[in-house]
Amino acid sequence: MDKARRAKRFAVWTAAGIACAAIAGAMLAAGVATLGAQDDKKNGDVNAGITIGKQATAKDVGLPIYPGATTHKDPKDENSGANFGLWGGSFGLKLAVLKLDSADSTEKVAAFYRKALAKYGPVLDCSNNNGKSADSGQGGDKSSKLTCGDDKPDAGELLFKAGTKEKQHLVSVKPAGAGVNIDLVYLEARGTEQEAK
Fold this sequence. Notes:
This protein has one domain. 23% of the residues lie in helices and 31% in strands. It contains 4 helices and 9 strands; from the N terminus they run αββαβββαββββα. It has helices spanning 3-28, 58-61, 106-117, 193-196; strands spanning 33-36, 48-53, 70-71, 81-88, 91-102, 124-125, 158-163, 167-176, 179-190. The protein is globular and about 60 Å long.
């Protein structure tokens, strides 16, 4: 597909995405929203949709719940996670976030999740990354190899990644009082500009 056609398709999907997001935002107030359309192969149309949810599960993030962990309660934000999906044609984005709390040590929780992440490939420790690493994706790297890139963890935070650039599993473990906050994240992106090159 030539660049002009890709750019036109992207502009159409962006406009459609904005419209869907506005409608879905209104529906989100009532709980979980799912919008979608079907393929019409006769006319060359493609499917598109958006899913927005206030919660994510262990299945959504592809990682187990740490034993004894509880759902994170943030006084500023009543949600302990999020589940978002947007797709259309060959483009797709999925983001699932699950927030937990544990009374165990940072090291014990980190060891548990390093082992759990290993099923997705080599586990990267991005804990000491300054956000300006040589592997930040500059220079047109077309590899699907996952890197720490521009990640810059907070002081004391441990950050681990596994998977590919297109399907990333991330775990953040941060000290919090006598325990830790755990963020489990799954990010999937397909049909990105990188794949189109």
